[in-house]
Design goal:
The chain is α+β, with helices and mostly antiparallel strands. It has helices at about 1-25, 150-155; strands at about 40-45, 50, 60, 65, 75-80, 90, 95-105, 110-120, 130-135, 160.
Length: about 160
């Protein structure tokens, strides 16, 4: 009887140790800072894009192109805007990242954005380019500038990113 009691106690202790080990949390690595998208990086368009007549911006969220009406209020998104004189159709290929800037709030024709990372894109030297602005659809006390992973989560289906670092 004593052997069974000892084995039972040992089994109970082993089970308690296993449960405690499973409940420990794995440390999380903080996300990369938004400054990882920097001048000299490359963003490559994977498929042709055309701005609809009368529209001056294209919106991307969840790795696909979306309309302003279908934007999720809880996910980051990006908008692509042509600079004056830039074509309203883009062919697949690389675009060099020019200047990168940050802004707390930006308004557009059909969308507003908060904690904005603004990325200048140049498809060819000495030609007008585009601005890719990425941020949050609503202001929040927990909102911060997007990480490279969050930017990619918005544009990944249409673009790839080759960062300078």
């Amino acid at each position: 009887m004593r052997i069974n009691e000892a084995a039972g106690k040992l089994a109970a202790m082993f089970a308690a140790v296993m449960v405690a080990a499973c409940q420990s949390t794995t440390p999380t690595i903080p996300p990369l800072p938004p400054q990882q998208v920097e001048s000299g990086s490359t963003i490559t368009l994977l498929a042709p894009l055309t701005f609809p007549t009368g529209r001056s911006e294209l919106l991307f969220q969840g790795q696909r192109q979306v309309s302003a009406a279908s934007l999720s209020k809880s996910l980051p998104y990006c908008k692509l805007v042509p600079l004056v004189g830039a074509p309203h159709s883009l062919t697949p290929g690389p675009m060099k990242v020019g200047q990168v800037s940050y802004d707390e709030r930006e308004s557009g024709d059909t969308s507003a954005m908060y904690s904005v990372t603004r990325i200048g894109l140049m498809p060819a030297p000495n030609q007008p380019g585009y601005t890719l602005s990425c941020g949050w659809p609503e202001a929040s006390s927990s909102s911060s500038f997007l990480t490279t992973e969050q930017i990619y989560s918005a544009i990944g289906g249409q673009f790839t990113m080759q960062l300078k670092r």
